[in-house]
């Protein structure tokens, strides 16, 4: 299984996330290098049990690969998305509806130790919501005149719009930056500084689920005719 290990590590590996005592009664539990896995499921009164594999990461992330039917391609689902995919009638209560097997019985994942890291990151605001994108990392655009890389901070919709416009402009240059005076004569950021891109989880993050966004209402625009925005707005309507 391909793993973005650099973006997942928190100084804790899978072997030390839980004690043997905490997980000894859990069926289908296994330890991987940077996370742990366990068989999980969600029950629909209409469709029966949808079974999957829950991956728990030390940074609080939860991902589920669905095995509800042979050949199901659903992977890296959030718990809420897996709950919905299973056809569960009373959705939006995934902590109660998604279960694991312990002592031969179905136990809600919310009543297990498996959410220890998820609850911790939620409590202290260092993790991500399972449904809401919490931020965007800084991005860079190269000047077509001097060739220097210029940083764009994407903290709100206005800043995202500025970056999006620069990215579309095939002739963008330093002096086009609207919110600060930048000239081609100004020094470029050192490469050692460019590795810091504003991720709330890790200063030197190389791209994780907290700071990389593939489309949201903050960085996609209904009045933009580019393919990226058009596809996002169209999919959001469905």
Automatic annotation (TrEMBL):
GO terms for cellular component: cytosol; nucleus. Transmembrane segments: none annotated. InterPro entries: Developmental_reg_ULTRAPETALA, ULT1/2_SAND, ULT1/2_Znf. Residues 136-233 form the ULTRAPETALA1/2 zinc finger domain. Pfam families: SAND_ULT1, zf_ULT1. Residues 26-118 form the ULTRAPETALA1/2 SAND domain. It comes from the Eukaryota. PANTHER family: PROTEIN ULTRAPETALA 1. This is Developmental regulator, ULTRAPETALA. It comes from Heracleum sosnowskyi. The lineage of its organism: Eukaryota, Viridiplantae, Streptophyta, Embryophyta, Tracheophyta.
């Amino acid at each position: 299984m391909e793993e973005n290990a650099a973006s997942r590590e928190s100084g804790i590996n899978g072997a030390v996330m839980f004690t043997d005592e905490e997980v000894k009664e859990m069926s289908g539990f296994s330890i991987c290098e940077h996370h742990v896995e366990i068989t999980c499921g969600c029950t629909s009164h209409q469709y029966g049990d949808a079974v999957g594999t829950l991956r728990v990461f030390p940074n609080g992330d939860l991902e589920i690969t669905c095995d509800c039917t042979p050949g199901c391609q659903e992977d890296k689902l959030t718990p809420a998305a897996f709950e919905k995919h299973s056809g569960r009638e009373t959705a939006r209560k995934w902590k109660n509806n998604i279960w694991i097997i312990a002592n031969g019985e179905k136990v809600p994942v919310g009543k297990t130790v498996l959410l220890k890291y998820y609850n911790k990151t939620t409590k202290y605001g260092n993790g991500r919501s399972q449904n809401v994108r919490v931020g965007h990392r800084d991005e860079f655009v190269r000047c077509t005149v001097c060739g220097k890389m210029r940083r764009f901070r994407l903290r709100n919709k206005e800043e995202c719009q500025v970056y999006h416009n620069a990215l579309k402009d095939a002739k963008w240059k330093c002096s086009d930056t609207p919110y600060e005076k930048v000239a081609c004569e100004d020094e470029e950021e050192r490469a050692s500084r460019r590795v810091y891109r504003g991720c709330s989880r890790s200063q030197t993050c190389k791209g994780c689920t907290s700071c990389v966004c593939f489309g949201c209402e903050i960085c996609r625009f209904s009045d933009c005719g580019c393919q990226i925005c058009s596809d996002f707005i169209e999919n959001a309507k469905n």
